[in-house]
Amino acid sequence: MEDGEIITFGQGASGRLGTGSNKNQKVPAKIGPYGFATKLKTAEGERTAQKRPLEHPSEKTLKKALSSAPGSGKQSWEIACLECGDMFSCAVTWHGALYTWGSGARGQLGTGSLQDSWVPKVVRMPSGRLVKSVACGREHCIAVTYDGNAYAWGKGDKGQLGVGRNEDTATPKAVGITNALCCAAGEDHSGAICRSESENELYMWGASELGKLGLGSAQLSSTDSPPACVRGFGKADCVPISLSCGQYHTAVICARKSDTEGDRTGRVWTFGGGWFGKLGHNDMENQYEPKLIQSLVVRIRSVHCGAYHSCALSYEKGVVNDNGEMAGDLWVWGRNRCICEHENAKVPIKFMQIDGQPKVTCVATSDMTTMLVTSAGLVYAWGDNRNGQIGLEGGKKESPQPEIIGNLPQPPILMCAGPGHMVVYARNKAMLAWGNQSCGRLGLQEKKMEKVLFKPRMVRAEWGSIEAMSGADEEGEAGKKVTAAALATIGEAQEADAGTEGSVDDGDEEDFQSTKENMLYAITSGQKVQRFSTMQTMLREEPESNKISSLHKHEKELKKLVESSVQSLATVPEKERRLSVVLQERVEKGIVYLNNVLQHHVHKDPERDRLDQELMARMPSYEELFTVLQLQISYLASLSMTIKDEAMAEVFVNVVCAIFADLHDSRIRNLFILLLQLMTSKELEQAKHIDDVFQPNSRVFRLFSFFALHRFHFEEVIHPLMDCHKTDEQGQPVTLMGAVTYKTLEKGQTWSLEFGHYLKSPSIAAKLKEQAPQELRADFTKELDMFYDFFKVDVVSSIGRLALAPSFWSFFAFCRDSIKECQLVGGEEDEAGTEVELKIAEPLFRLFLNGIMLPLLRDPKKFGGKEVGLLHCEKNNSDGDVLFNLSTVRDAFEDLTVPGGKKRLGKIRARLKPEILRYLLERSANASNAEDPESAVMVQTLVRHYDREPRSIYVPTSPLVKFQNLLVTNVNKIRQQSGDPLDEVCRKIGLCSEALVKEAIDKAEKGSEVLHRITIQHRFLFTERSMTICQVSRCTVPLQLSAGGGKPSEEGKLSENVDVIRTLKEDNNNKVLEDLFRSLPPLRSSNFLSLKEEFEALLKQCSQNPTLEEMLSQGIQAVGDLIETETSVEEVLEAMAAVILARNRHSRYLQTMLLGLSRLPMERDRHAEAIRRGELELKAVIEHSKTMTVPDRISNVAKLESAILKGNDLPFMLQKQAARERTKTSHKVVRYKLEELLSSGKVLECFSELETVQGKVYLTMWSVDSDVVVHVGLLEEADFMLEFVKQFKIPEDVIKQLPFSDKNDTTGLPLQGPFIMEWRSLELAKLLKEVPPAD
């Protein structure tokens, strides 16, 4: 043609027309500039749909699929689309792979077979096309590919396939449309929205009865209709963007033509059968053409058709849940039983059957069942339950009201419903199904005997297999024939690939890196590599940093870095010594001078000295002892297993908590995690059954509770559970305490597990004055049901929101793996019905409840008040009815920890326990990226040597002497060898006498014992001159504290006595195969015999590549040896996978260490600057001290206080004395008692510790110029101020503005900095007028 374009038509065999298919072309088709056929108009103006193939269909890569996918950046194996048919299910991955399972009787699985499939199988699309979305009808499927083509398969007797023939087909066939955007399928009709040259068009085909195709009454027919364009939207100035097909009706979302391209919302049009009012037009008439639902004026983002009802989700700008998913209102109309109403709804109504009317993120419908997910992540379902699809057991055939679907690990992000089953895909990438499993429609990982399953079970995720992630394709690249020319260039190709490694796009690199990580995670979680080609992919995609040569290189770099760091550290003591010597001299002289001036005022406590004199003499030995125990945690772990007496166990726990009290220090925190891990290992060694692990008397449990509820974790653990004022975007409480408070104070609910106890609650006791107890039994039963609902919804939701720190999940993951290794779990469900995969988390469940939940519930006033930073919650948390309901929640949690438990709480146990078990398993499974405590301790130990601040622990006298005797008595059982550091220090300390122990106990009972400050030596490298990693405790310790013992070489350099870097042993028996697998094209073999033959065939073709020829010869020999020793393929692949994992772990370890040690130069410079500054300041002090005398004001203050003043006491004492001088009653001041101001309502609230001593706190005010000074403090005799708490000014301009405040305005004082009290503004103005003017 003149414009250079080509037009073809005629016979299309062998692709001779270039239209992308082998079909004949009856009308001219123009070949586009890129090889795509484009549509031409015939003389009659009709459009002819041509197939538009991919440029290179064989290039089936993740990059190509995602380049046009709306969710670009998703991992290839994640699910993008999920659909259910009558007795089968479908899933599409972001890679464009389609999987089907279930009934195949009409070919609806698309695999070419009519047999049922009990596991998901991949559907082979023509020319390797990638699927974008799929829709399921009753027994047929429609799929849209990324190139805009549509394919159909399954039942086709009514023309619902749209392929030109009214017959079934078991493989995908092309539908006569092009540029398809999305599709939908009903009972026996189908539809798709296609992109035309200017706008979207809706095509419908199949059975046209009742007008469900929307083609008008003139085209009604019981026979089939081919794909035809539905008209009528253009007149309304709108275009279709989404659709849904029900059994006998269709709903379409149309957007305005003026809307932007990315706007996927609009209004709803419906057509088809109108009985029950399911079309939403305020009648029950059939509608043969699209008609707008006039009453539904809100913007809709999705519409869903059941058999007798319809649902729509509204769009609300900016409303999302905590996972970033859009949330809106659910609108329903149609049959009453399907929408939880008493009457049919002929127009859309807002669904309001769930308490609190939460927003909804997604919804799914089937014939008579509906399922939704709220913004809080809770799943509800209602309607037909004949196949258990709502999860209701006991023969209940339907539910007229929404029921919670329990036992889901995390909230669904995709879900679908069939007439007899449900399938959901959760945030954690797990797919679960339940209902009728006949024909394999559930696709379960483990096939069950029962026909109906009421609880969600895991779907066998074939798309998440290592083969699917690696892209291994049995009929793809692995089947290609390899030529001699290709073999000759293998070495060159690898070099070229290595040279261009850094040129990959950042986004693509992230996608591939994520895929690699998930392949590694799949192996870690127990998946097995099944094909040689998959192993090839894993080896080829292994990062360069994970290869042995790179690992050894990084090991050498790390050792050099450690060596240089240690050499630098060796100079630190001398630098500090010069400064400390001079400083000590000056300090000692100053102390002597002050003692001479002030010592006659010192009073001694002879009673205290008599008790502590002996302990003070042992203080150097105590410091040595606790330094050893903190550095080498294996001593404490061993000691914990020797204690049988419960009283001594309490002493042990208290002292260990004192040793590791400073959890704000990351080194101490990681040491404590290592201690918990070591104690767990020892406890598991003695356990005979999984029920023996982490019982309430377990030392691990008690120390874990200390760790979890420590001040360091208040905001991560306590606040998310106990902050009663925290709400979501709808104002609903999101914490456990908030939910209890809301249900109690707002809803007026009272909970109890026993009727007699119910009558004792404050609110019910008041009713007994007017009603007999038996009259309240009905209320008791009703509110008990409400309590069950509270656990099903609110408790599950609040626990699901709990975001514990990575250190928690790191410890839980260690416990999970250790329990697996000990093989304490059987292979069958227990009596309570707990699934096998969940049993392993039972000890974690006990740890979580006994260590976190129950301590909080047993002391709500402590953990819900100012002591944990929740002062604003104290009022609600102290309410009698709230505390009563909270005690019932506590009783229910306690029952969960008891085997069997109360029968009445069976509902709660069945719902909540599996939920928490899954929560713990899922989160711990994702803890692989958490910081390794062993590596962290090593880095932090080196860094801390630049820290000159002393580290101390504080232990009271009574626990100190008891622990001392416990340790000395058991030292022979816990020492690593005779004469080790612990053995030596125990000999120095010896046993405390019974008299001393008794005296310490008496002092403790009187509350007069001493808190001993014991300094810990954390800079041991300067004294011990060595450092290593203990093979037992995994701690960084001096050589003599390690499990192997030993002493540093005195002749060698300091750096030679430091061995803290792990090395990877080259223990790879399959290195020959590994090198070959990495080099060769995809292999086709599945066993060693065929692999040997394949190697021999390749050897004959590679004469031009001597290197590869040698490798193949060695490979043939290695495979021959494996055949001779009868080694299985599975064993070899498993061993190779283990080596890959070991290299990956070691690479991550080296990277972590290099990153951590990079901090050392910065710490070294900071330390040098501190020394330099200290020397300058000391010189200035020395010069000044030559003429120093004690000022009179200091001497006077010391005499008044009758004490020798410490340096940090001086500012406070001087400030106190100045306060006395300023606030004598002779001055023109006014004084108000804080307690009276609060009771009168002038001061609304205090925000400091003043609240505890309100009766003694006074506000003293006086004028300075035109400002007013406010002094807050405690009074002593003679009206002098005893303690100076706060002093601040109220400026003149603020004083003038206060009288003009509104009635409800408040003012916080002081005006600058944090408030300590909140005033009513007008009351404050009145008081300020009473302040006398300045002289």
Automatic annotation (TrEMBL):
Keyword Cell membrane tagged: no
Top-level taxon of origin: Eukaryota
Protein name in UniProt: RCC1-like domain-containing protein
InterPro entries for the chain: RCC1-like_dom, RCC1/BLIP-II, Reg_chr_condens, Rho_GTPase_activation_prot, Ub_ligase/GEF_domain
Bias type Basic and acidic residues, positions: 44-62
One Pfam family from the record: WD40_RLD
RCC repeat positions: 96-147, 148-196, 200-256, 266-316, 377-428
Ranges of residues in domain RCC1-like: 2-311
Swiss-Prot/TrEMBL keywords: Repeat
SUPFAM superfamilies for this protein: GTPase activation domain, GAP, RCC1/BLIP-II
Species in which this protein is naturally found: Effrenium voratum
Region (Disordered): 1-28, 44-72, 492-511
